Structure formats: C-alpha cells, structure tokens
Amino acid sequence: MDKTFNTLKSLIEKRKKRLKSRGSEMFIIWGIVILTGSLIRTFLINSGLVIILTLTAGVIVQTVYIRMRFKVEGFEMIWNNEMSLMWDFTILVIILSGVIFPVYFKLYSEQTGAVLMFFFAAPGAFISSLWLKKWSIIISPFIFILTSIFLSLPFPENKAFIYTTAIIFGLIIPGIISKFEGHLPAD
Amino acid sequence: MKKSINETESKPDYYLDSMLTAEIRFFIMTILAMYESADFNFLKKELSASDGNLSVNLTKLEEAGYISSMKEFVRKKPRTTYKITGLGLERLSRHINKIDSFKQLLDLKEKTNG
Fold this sequence. Notes:
The complex is a heterodimer. By secondary structure, chain A is mainly α. Chain A has six helices and one strand. The two termini of chain A are 26 Å apart. Chain B has six helices and three strands, in the order αααβααββα. In chain B, a hairpin with a 2-residue loop joins strand 2 (67-74) and strand 3 (77-84). The chains are: A mainly alpha, B alpha+beta. Strand 1 (75-76) of chain A pairs antiparallel with strand 1 (37-39) of chain B, so a sheet runs across the interface.
C-alpha cells in the first residue's frame, strides 16, 4: 500500500514540476521574440508591420516548440491546448488594438495603441500565473499594467527603453526565476 | 474475455470498478487524467512497466472505452498516443470517491469501536 501511495505521490509531483517548467520556457521564448522585434523596430525598420510579424513569429515559434517537445518527451500538457489558445487569442487582440486599429484604421493614436498592447497582455500573464500556480510569474501582469500606465502619461520620450524594460522584467526575468522554481532533477 | 461497459455498470454500487482495481490500470488512468495526452514510451518510463504488460492493460482500457488511442508515424517509426475519454474520467473519479467513502466508513468504525 505504501508503494502504491508513493508511486501516486511521485506521479503527481512530477506532473506539477513539468507544468511549472514548461510555463517558464514559454515566458522566456516570448520575451526573446518580442525583445528582438522591439529592437528591430527601434533601430532598423520603424513600422507597425514589424510588431505584427514579431507576434506572428512568436505564435509560430510557440507552436513548433510545443510540437517538438511533445515528440521528444511523449506527453502533452495544458500548454498544448487551453493555454496556447488563450495566448493566441491575446496576441490577436494585441495586434488589433495595438497596431491594426491605430496604425491602419487611424481609430486612435499609436501611443494609445501601445498602452492597450501592454494592458491586454496583463490578463494573459495573470491567468497563466494562476494556471501554473507560479508566484514568480505573478509580477508579470503588474509590470505590464505599470508599463501601460507609464506609456499613457504625456512625458515618456524614450519609448524603446520602456518597452525593453517591460519585456525584460515582465517576461524574461520572471521566466528565468520560475524555471529554477520548476526544476526537475529526475528528468 | 472482454469486459464490457455494461458488465461494470450492472454491478451494485458498493463494488469497485474492476477495470481500475488493477494497480497498473489505475496508474495509467491517473497519468492520462493529469496530462492532455501521453505516448506509449512515456507511460512505460513513468510506470517502469514492460512493453507486454503495458500493452495488454492499455488494450483493456481502450476496449472498455476508458481511453482512446491515436497511431501515427514519426520519422518512419510507429507511435501511439493515448487520451482519457469522458467515460474514463467519470469512472476514475467515481472509483476514487468510492475508495474515499470506504476509508471514511472504516475511520468511523474504528472511532465507534475505540
């Protein structure tokens, strides 16, 4: 009976750690993709199209990465379905509110678009942290909301610096911290 | 001899689900309930089970309608992925609830005797 209980306990523990570990990687991947896009837009091509292409590339990288991991490891978790769908939807909302509506339809200013992009990223990060039960990621939505508020103020001149800081502190660093939180030595 | 779903359903309520009383099948179901899907090699590694034992028990669960499988070829090698079905999830949950209610009954008996 003890053996059964221990096996069950070990299966549950492994699953918990795998779930946490996978979530961290997604935050790091998204952080790197968006940071690259942001730097390209700041220093090379200043166009709204760069944001659309970057976010689309992020969705493709996420899908390919998840498929690749499934082939290697042999299991699928929440990231393969519910959470991927939630992020795909969030990205679509961000593209529409942050680029398509302000840049191509001129419904509001590009600054408002930037505010909305970070504002809509916050619920996605908040839901992810609750789903993954990772408290190191809970900082992410607050960073995005703070960025959103800061960008709505009239004075910020160096927006590239604000974007970069928000991505590093809102995605990459929480991802790295939570990677250690979810480390699984047995794997 | 295949164990049909009706055979399990026709038993009185205090009976444990015979499909889940075997330890390996219970563990397979637990894993598939925790993951979206899992392939044969993953289950084999997690349960430290032999190919034959795992394969026989997976077939039994599939025939009972508790799990579903999908076969595909990855780099020319066959690969089977398993998922728990709605029926399987319901049966697993019922099985665990029954064990829990037995435990509560035993605890009560112990307290009464004590």
